[in-house]
């Protein structure tokens, strides 16, 4: 035997046969999405902290400010389905880039507002821009991660979103003190433009088309047929099946319950601390950030909890529905406890538990939506998420109008604001009940009835 050939057989060929490690481009995609949602909520939440200064400078009442908050939420709800559908048809790379550039421009224009009507229009158009961000981010997660990792991935994306929201009040309070509220919006809006340029240059809708992805990573991602290459066309949404689906309306109702509480906290809580509990502006920003930090932690743990329970039990009901129901119930109790705390810090801590619970069930909600939406995840995620705008709009109008009405009756301080919080506690109890009615194994788009399971798996 040729010694040289023998040496080659022994050392070279075995090395060539060793499998390569999967590349990790999917985690870089996750980092991009997390940066986007961080900026998304940084820009969305900052107006809550700026509300007192805006109302003072532009002579806007609490009721009128509620309409301004609601204008954003209305347009956000109206345009979620169209922009989600655009992502399904044309790809998230193009649509997300345009979305972020649009909302960043109107964040900057918020600082140029000269009165109620201009501010109302600008915030409405700001909502048009932000509407498709989360449905298209969900679509990216569905195409870049296998089913067993989507809950955690979605949890990280929503955690980054909540971190942006948590940072926003304190950052806005500091910037307003330093630059004034107008230039604060300019600075916040500039961040999104930089993200959009980098994302468009680097991202690809199909993992197969990204030059840095190897075959091993493709195999990891393809734990699900929806991760296959994008077909040339996209089938129409079977609305005749979607609209009668109980899951659609239950999940939309759940989002509405959570959004009612969440949007009250990001829009009104800093003002509540200032006007109701006589907390000065900088401290109110810090306490509002403390509250929203609870939401960030809830998102992170919710994604991990959802995936862990799914792996241990194999039951979507245990890992999603029961987690969601328990979260809403505990959050409602925590909100009631906050009303019995005289200390603003203790009240904020209890409220932080409330939003922790609201956000703990969000990854389970998104995982359920992905699982039942098939190839129409962008549009149907947009539809179900947009139904949450009913609760969000009503919530923002309700609390501002209630505070003005109670003020006209002679109530002051906490007496003007606290009664509204009892309503939000009832809403959370309703959310706990709705989660128990969701059928996470039943597709929204498939006419074939699912077989009834004999029994749910019981966790070890």
How would you describe this protein?
The protein has 460 residues and is mainly alpha-helical. Helices cover 78% and strands 0% of the residues. The chain contains 18 helices and no strands. It is globular.
CATH topology: Growth Hormone, Chain: A
Helical content (DSSP H or I, runs of 4+): over 70%
Number of domains: 1
What's the main sheet like? none
CATH domain class name: Mainly Alpha
Q: Tell me the span between the first and last alpha carbons.
A: 60 Å
Assign the CATH superfamily: MFS general substrate transporter like domains
Mean pLDDT: 81
Strand tally:
0
Overall shape? globular
Q: Per DSSP, what share of the residues sits in E-state strands of 2 or more residues?
A: under 5%
Number of helices, counting only DSSP H or I runs of 4 residues or more? 18
Radius of gyration: 24 Å
Structural class of the secondary structure composition? mainly alpha
H/E topology pattern? HHHHHHHHHHHHHHHHHH
CATH architectural group: Up-down Bundle
Which stretches of 5+ consecutive residues score pLDDT under 50?
1-17, 224-232, 448-460
């Amino acid at each position: 035997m040729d010694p040289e050939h023998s040496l080659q057989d022994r050392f070279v060929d075995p090395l060539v046969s060793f499998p390569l490690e999967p590349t990790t481009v999917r985690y870089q995609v996750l980092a991009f999405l997390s940066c986007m949602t961080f900026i998304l909520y940084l820009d969305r939440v900052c107006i809550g902290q700026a509300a007192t200064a805006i109302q003072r400078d532009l002579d806007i009442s609490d009721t009128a400010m509620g309409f301004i908050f609601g204008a954003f939420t209305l347009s956000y709800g109206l345009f979620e389905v169209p922009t989600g559908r655009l992502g399904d048809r044309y790809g998230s790379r193009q649509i997300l880039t345009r979305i972020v550039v649009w909302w960043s421009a109107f964040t900057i224009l918020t600082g140029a507002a000269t009165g109620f009507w201009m501010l109302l229009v600008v915030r409405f158009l700001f909502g048009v821009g932000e509407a498709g961000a989360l449905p298209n981010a969900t679509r990216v997660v569905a195409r870049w991660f296998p089913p067993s990792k989507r809950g955690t991935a979605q949890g990280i994306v929503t955690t980054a979103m909540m971190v942006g929201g948590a940072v926003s009040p304190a950052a806005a309070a500091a910037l307003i003190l330093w630059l004034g509220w107008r230039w604060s919006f300019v600075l916040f809006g500039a961040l999104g433009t930089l993200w959009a340029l980098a994302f468009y240059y680097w991202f690809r809708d199909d993992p197969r088309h990204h030059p840095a992805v190897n075959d091993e990573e493709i195999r990891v991602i393809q734990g699900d047929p929806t991760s296959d290459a994008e077909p040339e066309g996209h089938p129409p949404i079977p609305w005749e099946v979607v609209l009668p689906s109980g899951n659609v309306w239950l999940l939309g109702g759940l989002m509405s319950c959570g959004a009612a509480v969440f949007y009250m906290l990001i829009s009104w809580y800093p003002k509540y601390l200032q006007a109701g509990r006589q907390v000065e502006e900088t401290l109110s920003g810090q306490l509002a950030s403390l509250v929203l930090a609870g939401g960030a932690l809830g998102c992170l743990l919710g994604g991990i909890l959802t995936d862990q329970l799914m792996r241990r039990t194999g039951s979507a009901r245990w890992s999603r529905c029961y987690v969601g129901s328990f979260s809403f119930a505990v959050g409602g109790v925590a909100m009631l406890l906050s009303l019995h705390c005289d200390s603003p810090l203790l009240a904020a801590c209890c409220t932080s538990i409330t939003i922790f619970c609201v956000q703990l069930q969000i990854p389970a909600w998104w995982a359920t939506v992905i699982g039942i939406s098939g190839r129409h995840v962008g549009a149907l995620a947009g539809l179900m998420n947009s139904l949450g705008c009913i609760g969000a709009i009503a919530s923002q109008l309700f609390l501002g109008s209630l505070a003005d009405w109670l003020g006209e009756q002679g109530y002051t301080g906490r007496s003007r604001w606290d009664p509204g919080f009892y309503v939000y506690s009832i809403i959370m109890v309703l959310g706990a009940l709705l989660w128990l009615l969701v059928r996470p194994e039943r597709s929204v788009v498939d006419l074939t009835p699912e077989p009834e399971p004999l029994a749910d798996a019981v966790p070890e």
